[in-house]
Design a protein that fits this description.
The N and C termini lie far apart (63 Å). By secondary structure, this protein is α+β, with helices and mostly antiparallel strands. The strands form 4 sheets. Strands 1-2-3-7-6 form a 5-stranded antiparallel sheet, sandwiched between helices. The protein folds into 2 domains: 107 residues, Phosphorylase Kinase, domain 1; 289 residues, Aminoglycoside 3'-phosphotransferase, Chain: A, domain 2. Helix 12 runs antiparallel to helix 14. The chain contains 15 helices and 12 strands. The chain is 51% helix and 12% strand. The model has no long low-confidence stretch (mean pLDDT 96). The protein is globular and about 65 Å long. It binds adenosine-5'-diphosphate, 5-S-methyl-5-thio-alpha-D-ribofuranose and magnesium ion (MG).
Length: 423
């Protein structure tokens, strides 16, 4: 079918639009009727579930970006071309890790639309974790997804010219990168109208976060990394709302923030979301679940490192490495240094995410959904203090077990950020 000039879809227009795509029309038999439901719960786009009336087992997801930020409304323009990067990343992930992403039925950059597999029997990981659901091997799945996608698109997994061509496909995802620069690395740490700060949390933010120069400079260093490092194609928005899971499977969705960035970015973000969930369960009192969440979050790092190194062992030619340049000992040293660097960077990115989700425009439902503002403030401050602690320890941590010890001591009240009395 010929792609068309952009128009924003609604349920009626959507039916006609899908009718004009032969493969989707054949699958859903649109003339025999479809049920259309808008199910988007994200911040940016519209997401429709379309089910065939004559065979309810046949369904697709249609996602369309609109020329504004959905959570803020039309007064906040945002280029709809973000869908271009969602399409490109999802197609690439379908080549690299098909078991972890929905299949693409159709894509249309002009209409900013993607039609993809409806992930039946999967639910959004965040909501399951809020209810205290267990997902066997979730850390293994996340670690595998990260190791495969990051290695395969990096200067370690690709030849130089081919990789630069791939980078050119993502270099203009500028507006979404700018959202991250502003909302993860800048506004939460200064007075800004976009922030959403619980009045009870505000005092801590003023007195202990925004006047901590070392902390602010560390955030700035991470922003610099985000702006300048182009290690690999990162997902760019890998939080627990970007994973759809069942007991057996895990799928990564919502790839619109994809760009070439630092190795540790996705890793830090996803682990921060696990830790925020851990913190939210102080409210439910589910200690057993907290233990599971903490173990899984640490296992993500371990799984990632194990699988990333396995891939590296299998590859001796890449943009970076030419066969024969290093002997085994030299290469082992190089590998060890790089894995420590990725680990430390990811702890820093984790710290940034903990803070932005506690006081920035986009919180996490795990904590923001708590109605009582005093209870919520206590958890937000716990997350902010952990952010400060991790940022200050980051460069001295070389192993996952060391990080785990710091986090356990913190939650046990045995460790707290420098310059702060124990609270
Ligand atoms: P946004 O970009 O606006 O954040 P998402 O891509 O996160 O949108 O999708 C919003 C919601 O739509 C998800 O939280 C999930 O509930 C649902 N969804 C998205 N993709 C699928 C899919 N392939 N299968 C089933 N549900 C999906
Ligand atoms: C205005 S920022 C909205 C946030 O939602 C997305 O999921 C990203 O995390 C982004 O930072
Ligand atoms: Mg999104």
């Amino acid at each position: 079918m010929n792609n068309k000039v952009y128009e924003q879809l609604d349920p009626n227009k959507l039916e006609n639009y899908l009718y004009s795509i032969p493969s989707v029309n054949d699958y859903l038999e649109i003339k025999r009727g479809v049920l259309v439901e808008e199910i988007g719960d994200g911040n940016l786009n519209f997401v429709y579930k379309v089910v065939s009336k004559i065979n309810k087992n046949k369904a697709v997801i249609v996602k369309q970006s609109v020329p504004y930020l959905r959570m803020a409304g039309e007064a906040w323009p945002l280029s709809k071309s973000r869908m271009r990067y969602e399409i490109r990343a999802l197609k690439l992930y379908n080549e690299l890790v098909p078991e972890f992403v929905p299949k693409v039925h159709h894509s249309d950059e002009d209409m900013s639309v993607i039609v993809m597999q409806y992930l039946d029997s999967q639910s959004v990981l965040r909501y399951g974790m809020m209810k205290g659901e267990y997902y066997p091997d979730i850390s293994k799945k996340i670690g595998t997804f990260l190791a495969q996608t990051l290695f395969e698109t990096s200067f370690l997994g690709m030849e130089s010219m081919q990789r630069r061509a791939l980078m050119s496909q993502f270099v203009l995802n500028d507006e979404l990168c700018k959202l991250t620069e502003d909302f993860i690395f800048t506004f939460p740490y200064m007075n800004h109208e976009s922030n959403s700060i619980n009045p009870i949390t505000e005092k801590y933010v003023e007195n202990s976060l925004r006047n901590d120069s070392e902390y602010k400079l560390s955030i700035l260093r991470h922003k610099e990394m985000f702006l300048t490092k182009t290690d690999a194609l990162v997902h760019g928005d890998l939080h627990t709302g970007s994973l759809m899971v069942s007991k057996d499977d895990a799928y990564v969705i919502d790839t619109e923030f994809a760009f070439f960035g630092p190795f540790g970015f996705d890793l830090g973000k996803i682990v921060a979301n696990f830790l925020l969930n851990y913190i939210s369960h102080f409210n439910t009192g589910n200690k057993e679940y907290q233990e599971w969440v903490l173990c899984q979050s640490m296992a993500i790092f371990k799984e990632f490192e194990k699988q990333f190194l396995t891939k590296w062992d299998e590859q001796d030619e890449s943009s970076l490495l030419t066969h024969g340049y290093c002997n085994k000992e030299e290469l082992d040293t190089y590998k060890k240094d790089m894995m420590v660097k990725i680990f430390q960077d990811s702890i820093g990115f984790c710290a940034c995410s903990l803070a932005r989700r506690s006081i920035g425009i986009a919180g996490v439902a795990d904590i923001r959904s708590i109605a009582d503002i005093e209870t919520r403030a206590a958890l937000e401050i716990k997350a902010l203090r952990l952010s400060k602690l991790l940022m200050s320890k980051q460069s001295s941590l070389n192993k996952v077990d060391e990080l785990e010890e710091v986090i356990r001591n913190y939650f046990a009240g045995k460790e707290y950020p420098e310059n702060e009395v124990h609270q």
